[in-house]
């Protein structure tokens, strides 16, 4: 019937507008039942359950058999980790798999059979599930004694496929790969030619005293390759050249040439290439988001314009304001936006909306939420007004900064004085007293500011919230200290009592004070710019970080499986600072942390084990990790940072006058000036290609 | 008289055109005598003498007293360096100073008194000379026994002031300093806050077993600062966190936070800032060069237009073709350009040249020299034509590459097989034989190519010159080997004979073969692009490299003076691989090479000497060097590389069709499409501001 049709159209419009808000594709089934399922599927609860499942299945690695979740990383002192009985983690896994099966079925159903075949991600999802379930069955049939578990390496895929941003980024990285591969090839050629040169240059001589270089670094082809590869990461520089250099200074020319060509030219060329390929990435991604939004709104307009209440012979399609209101009631969206749209709909006071008017109404979605701080209280008394003026003045804030600085300096002085003292010689009286006074000042500052600004206005500034929270915590800690240990007096050196010793309490207070000092950041213009850039970057970086997590997880699991039991306690040798085998500046640290005890990269151990097969694997494994994380990922990060920063810096002048208003910046807003609005033709062409929606016209 | 005036005008025009060609400023005296002096001063001989003087005064450091110009760097085995007698280096120095005094007087005279006061570089030059001469007198009056020689640190200034490109770059770097300083300040804040945190976190505890972290890395404020600063350079990562990490894995959070914030964010932010500030640098510098060129030409036009032979009442100023020809005869310039200008002047066949026509004539200067290869010889015989077709075909070149690759692989195989053999067990027969055959093939290839292309065409390709030269050297080496050691036969292992042993000869041949393999580069498209980018970069980088040399020289001299005799032979401890004190990836290596024996950064020595005052200085010295070279210079380099590469990459598509023609690329040509021509008004305004030239109109 017509009413049912109308209901369907309304529902379609609701879903399309929700798609537009969330930047989702509108290419899904649009019949009543599918729409109901679609809204359920994208409801907060369902998505939350899905995210929880992904988290759980990823977290399983921490308690599964070769895990290293212990306090100490020292293999000698570490108690044996808890091994869950066979079937426990497996049943949790099965539950997760069932959720994923449901997820993939709903998703496949919703996009329809024809679209399914085009969607490689969905097919890979199904394949991953099949492999995982098969592996799970094999695992159970061996009663969990099998050593190879493929499904554990596949787990991060579930995280990857659930984020459209990550998929988009991966596509983008994929398109950069050919150029990157060229430079990596160039690096490989560079490395191999220099390796051959090195082997010819530092060959074995008859005099055993003279060929230290050959003995340690260039004994054979794999050793030479490793030495130079590690030199490329600058980790064994200058150790690697010292023996040759002591013999003859001219040998250093070889190492300088290698480092300058490899490290200065080729490595930075990689940065240049990645930046060049990535320059348009953010803009393109934001542009496609905008297109999805406009398309969703347009689709809603088109279905609403086919509502039966309107004469079909009208020249131009239009939508009645009543229908739109009906739709808006049903749409789930930010209440501020909804109200703003309702308001402009009323103000427009037109019954019929054209396509352009319809789009214009929804432009509210693209606008910044300009945050307005609540007003200060208005005091009647003249004295109170004066107080308000004094303590609401920026100079009072600056005074607070100066006091915080003084506190930091006093802590620093005490630290320097106490640095070499035995714990039993330390006198906590001085620090205890001054901290007490400083904390009292902080409390007073907070109260006076609240008095001047009113509680709501005070809390509306993030810097005040940060400040106030720390002040309250400091106060509680201080009160607790006095309650347990009494007031400070000379020679105040009580023994351990309660949960924390006095010394620990004082340390904690000091750390919080150091942390509180960060409140100065918004007061320094350049620092504020840098910090907002970094915060923006963190937002844009989530997809990148996600991909790094995916790769890292796969690597960690592979590493755990490869090197299980490779490090056995060997008396004292297995512990102590790892020496120069430090591939890849920051990233190895991360890998290091996860399975510190499970690897043979300890300087001492490396030489012991280098003849073993396992360390060959370790080398390849580390080189792969270094290439992916340190070379590619870090360069991608630099590219993103350059793009963000340059964009922001260019806009700094424009914004200078508006600096008082805090913008809720998003990537979409950052690029608003450069984005192109999609044309009517593009939108309609895309709409006509919709696999499930038959438009009347 | 009028003739004398005319001569003066002609001479002025000649000098202005020479200024335009060399991109020099035209703001110098323009009377007859000054012009004569000016042309003498900028003549090749004078400039060559000046460069030689600068080289000599800089090179003095290698033979002056605390020098380290010995073959070995090992303080134990090193023979005492040769000490020149007092007065030898000093008299060379005096000669150099006299040349500089002459230089500065001529320069000051030529730009005139009024301009002199505006020129800070000239004043600094004079000041440097005064200080140096005073120091020289002090030195002689002490009979060379004084320890502090300021003039040695000032020496690189002479290099700096002689290069306009370097001065320009320095100005550019100077304008970037405020932003860089902000980030460095941010880094300092980051470092100091984390140091305080670390000192609170890793404080001394009662249990001596537990505070390894405190003992080694965070004993007091300077130690903590150093540990974290070195962590920022990733040199002591992960060593620094191992003790704390073994105690409790949670401590790693501190180190990860520090590294991610400092190394990933702040350090890369520095790259972004420097790139952002430097983006326009190349373009701006090329633009100002273009302005100087146009200005010189215009000035020549203006003085020529005031020649008496032309009626003064003419509406538009113009220049007679005869006068221009007269000027061109006298101008020293590239003969190809001169001929081209003469030719267009004749083709134009107009007696009077307007300003626009005059400028147009000299546009020849801006054009690429398109290199045309001489034609191949034309053979009469049908057989020879066929031969020419076969061996002139690119496929013959590819075959040569394949053969070179096969040679490389065979050397590699032999190297792998011989890697662990004693020198006495090695059999050089196999390698000797195959190398002999390969070299014969190379010779044949060269001869056939010469046959097909003709000698002149063959030599006009740089890749052929490279190839041919190496082939000839290889041939000579091979013949020498056979002459000394006879033909190879199984068990061919002769003893040492003549200048080099057989084994050294074979090694040298192999190295040359590996080097010859680089001929494949132009055949691979991407590699060729990368290599030409790098070569372009090297051209643009000369100014940067010069500044690095200046800074490095000053640092090296300071270091030699500060740490003279700091490293004394201590049995075995002073030698052996330096351990983790590896500040700054590539640059320390450079510093290291220069005065390896004079520093206390050896891992073992660092701990021995860390209580001494000298190592405090060493720390500050190294941190300064690290900041300047590794942080600032490397980032400038990356900025330049990004700019060069992105520009080149964008133009790749345009040039693809023209790839057969080899361009003599210069920075000026690279930016030609984007450069703005200066307007007539700008030129005339600048000309009227000329301090010495009075224009009639």
Automatic annotation (TrEMBL), chains A, B:
The chain crosses the membrane at residues 45-63, 122-143, 180-202, 253-275, 395-417, 429-448, 469-488, 508-531, 543-563, 620-642. It holds the Pfam family Ion_trans. InterPro entries: Ion_trans_dom (IPR005821), TPC2 (IPR028798), Volt_channel_dom_sf (IPR027359). It is a multi-pass membrane protein. One of its GO terms (biological process) is calcium-mediated signaling. Keywords: Calcium, Calcium channel, Calcium transport, Endosome, Glycoprotein, Ion channel, Ion transport, Lysosome, Membrane, Repeat, Transmembrane, Transmembrane helix, Transport, Voltage-gated channel. It catalyses: Na(+)(in) = Na(+)(out); Ca(2+)(in) = Ca(2+)(out). One of its GO terms (cellular component) is lysosomal membrane. It comes from the Eukaryota. Residues 55-278, 398-645 form the Ion transport domain. It is found in: Late endosome membrane; Lysosome membrane. One of its GO terms (molecular function) is calcium channel activity. Belongs to the calcium channel alpha-1 subunit (TC 1.A.1.11) family. Two pore calcium channel subfamily. This is Two pore channel protein 2.
């Amino acid at each position: 019937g017509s009413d049912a049709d109308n209901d369907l159209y309304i529902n379609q419009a609701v879903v399309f507008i929700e798609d537009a808000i969330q930047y989702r594709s509108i290419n899904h089934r649009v019949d009543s039942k599918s729409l109901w399922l679609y809204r359920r599927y994208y409801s907060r609860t369902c998505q939350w359950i899905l995210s929880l499942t992904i988290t759980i299945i990823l977290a399983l690695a921490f308690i599964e058999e070769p895990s290293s979740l212990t306090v100490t990383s020292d293999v000698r002192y570490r108690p044996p980790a808890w091994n869950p009985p066979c079937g426990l983690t497996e049943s949790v896994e099965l539950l997760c798999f069932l959720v994923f099966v449901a997820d993939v079925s709903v998703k496949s159903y919703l996009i329809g059979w024809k679209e399914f075949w085009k969607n490689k991600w969905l097919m890979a999802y199904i394949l991953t599930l099949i492999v995982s379930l098969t592996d799970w069955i094999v695992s159970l049939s061996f009663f969990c004694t099998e050593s190879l578990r493929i499904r554990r390496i596949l787990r991060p895929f579930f995280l990857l496929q659930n984020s459209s941003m990550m998929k988009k980024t991966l596509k983008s990285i994929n398109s950069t790969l050919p150029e990157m591969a060229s430079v990596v090839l160039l690096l490989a050629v560079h490395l191999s030619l220099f390796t051959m040169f090195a082997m010819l240059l530092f060959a074995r001589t008859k005099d055993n005293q003279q060929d230290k270089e050959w003995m340690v670094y260039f004994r054979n082809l794999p050793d030479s390759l490793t030495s130079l590869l590690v030199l490329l990461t600058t980790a064994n520089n200058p150790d690697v050249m010292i023996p040759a250099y002591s013999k003859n200074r001219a040998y250093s020319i070889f190492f300088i040439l290698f480092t300058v060509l490899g490290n200065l030219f080729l490595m930075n060329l990689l940065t240049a290439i990645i930046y060049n390929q990535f320059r348009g990435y953010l803009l393109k991604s934001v542009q496609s988001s905008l297109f999805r939004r406009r398309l969703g709104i347009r689709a809603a307009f088109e279905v609403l314009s086919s509502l039966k209440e309107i004469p079909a012979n009208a020249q131009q399609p239009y939508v009645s304001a009543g229908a739109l209101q009906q739709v808006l009631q049903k749409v789930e969206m930010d209440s501020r936006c909804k109200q703003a749209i309702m308001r402009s709909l009323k103000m427009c006071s037109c019954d019929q909306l054209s396509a352009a008017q319809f789009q214009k109404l929804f432009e509210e979605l693209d606008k910044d939420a300009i945050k307005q701080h609540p007003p200060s209280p208005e005091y009647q008394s003249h004295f109170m007004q004066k107080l308000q003026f004094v303590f609401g003045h920026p100079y009072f804030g600056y005074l607070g900064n100066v006091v915080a600085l003084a506190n930091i300096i006093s802590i620093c002085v005490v630290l320097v004085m106490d640095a070499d003292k035995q714990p039993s010689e330390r006198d906590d009286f001085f620090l205890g007293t001054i901290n007490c006074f400083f904390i009292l000042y902080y409390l007073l500052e907070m109260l006076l500011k609240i008095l001047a600004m009113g509680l709501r206005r005070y809390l509306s500034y993030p810097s005040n919230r940060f400040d106030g929270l720390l002040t309250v915590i400091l106060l509680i800690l201080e009160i607790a200290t006095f309650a347990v240990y009494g007031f400070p007096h000379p020679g105040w050196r009580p023994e351990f009592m309660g949960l924390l010793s006095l010394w620990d309490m004082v340390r904690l207070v000091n750390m919080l004070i150091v942390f509180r000092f960060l409140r100065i950041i918004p007061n320094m213009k350049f620092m504020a710019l840098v910090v907002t850039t970094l915060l923006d970057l963190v937002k844009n970086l989530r997809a990148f970080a996600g991909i790094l997590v995916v790769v890292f997880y796969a690597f960690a699991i592979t590493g755990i499986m490869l090197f299980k039991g490779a490090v056995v306690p060997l008396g004292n040798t297995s512990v102590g600072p790892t020496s120069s085998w430090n591939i890849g500046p920051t990233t190895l640290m991360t890998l290091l942390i996860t399975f510190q005890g499970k690897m043979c990269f300890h300087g001492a151990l490396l030489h012991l084990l280098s003849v073993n097969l396992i360390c060959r694997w370790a080398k390849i494994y580390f080189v792969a990790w270094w290439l992916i994380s340190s070379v590619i990922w870090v360069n991608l990060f630099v590219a993103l940072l350059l793009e963000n920063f340059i964009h922001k810096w260019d806009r700094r002048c424009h914004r200078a006058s508006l600096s008082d208003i805090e913008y809720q910046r998003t990537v979409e807003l950052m690029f608003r000036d450069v984005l192109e609005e999609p044309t009517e033709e593009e939108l309609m062409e895309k709409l006509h290609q919709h696999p499930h929606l038959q438009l009347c016209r």
